[in-house]
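It is worth pausing here to work through a concrete case rather than discussing structure prediction in the abstract. The textbook approach is simple: state the sequence, then state the predicted structure, then interpret. We follow exactly that order.
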Amino acid sequence: MSSDKINLLSFSGKMRILHLSWFAFFLTFVVWFNHAPLLAAMRDSMGLSNDQIKTLLILNVALTIPARIIIGMLVDAFGPRRIFSMLLFISSFLCFGFAIADSFETLALMRFLLGFVGAGFVIGIRMISEWFPAKQTGLAQGIYGGWGNFGSAGAAIALPTVALFFGGDDGWRYAVASTGVLTLIYSAVYFFSVTDTPKGSTYFKPKRSGALEITSPLDFFLYLIMNIPLYAALAVLTWKLSPTNLGMLSQDVVYIIYAVLIALYIFQTIRIYQINKHVFSETVPEIDRYKFSQVAVLDLSYMVTFGSELAVVSMLPLFFLDTFKLTAIEAGLIASVYAGLNLIMRPAGGWLSDKYGRKRSLSIIMAGLALGYFFMSMITSEWSVIAAVMVTIFCSLFVNAGNGAVFAVVPLVKRRLTGQIAGMAGAFGNVGAVTFLTVLSFVTPAIFFLVIGAAAIIVLFAVLFFLQEPKGQTAEVLPDGTVQMIDVS
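Step two, the predicted structure:
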């Protein structure tokens, strides 16, 4: 590595890779949420109903859960340079398809497929882990994640202006298409501008592909258990589209999707066994071992941090509007602060993890997160708006720092499996959003906040009792059979 410091003004060496990668991630979020600020124009132009708008919003996140798992496997096998470029390239044409759609059915299909671009986050996690040493990975991953996530805000800021510039009923189409053009160009820029590792370094790949490698019988069964929420979240999304809710799918189709999800879980279980059946008959060498419990704790942590962020961002404007009788603009501005702090606090969470330890930092952050949501559950119309905003900011500090702290640990579990581990943790973020928003559909906002706080307390105990502080070095086997030691502390 060329330097022991992270100089944000530099555009050489590892910093060049960081800047190119966070901007690639930024573009994936622009594409993923390019419809959000244009929904009103789309509704008026195509005569969409409110239920059809809700359906588009659900479809936009449905594919992201399995996509993050799949992309994690691909990036470990083929490298982040190829996979990131491929994802940007494909998503550009999906943007064009969405922009020229002339029916709701076509819009829905393109929106569903565009959910795949939400997996772009996973790719850069592996790229950054290859270029930055362990003592800097938290801050670097935080910058990558925080600045990249800002793409949704970038879309909200820029795309209405682009649509207004072109004007007419089709202004939104040009705005969406412009994101496809930008992404198509950058897919080539990224491919020809980066390498998977610094010169002279080895890119470690999984020994087997098709499922995450585990190293003990206990880990095998824990892996199967941790896969259940991924399929359950997809089942919940299907239920939301069923006749008993939005009514966008017939009951027969709903039953078919449920059957497919069950079949896929069984197929994945068989595949996991095929990849890892050796753990039941032989002892895995010490050099290859890691504890899957570390992955499980990180999954649950991200479910509570990023999952709750997605859920709260979705309901916060309406919560402030109804509680304090604000205007839509005022409520939106207040709510934007909650997610906007991610730009600062995600890198801060990674930096705290680098400086003060992974386990200690995540424990403190999780405790603060639980306390923040407890305070938010107490907000009523009798509070002053200022007090409510201060409590919201307090909670957001820990939520967003938690995002950074989780992914400060992910690359340190097992280097050659980083993409798959990041993919699973990222998918659990979406699982959290589906879970908490489903809870909200049955309870009051106060109880909704309490449920998230209670989940944070449970995860806090999981961190305290099961997460291990990465120390010393981990080993990876080179293609020629020799062993390379990698610092993880």
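Step three, interpretation. The domain at 289-476 is CATH 1.20.1250.20 (Growth Hormone; Chain: A;). Strands lie at 473-477, 483-487.
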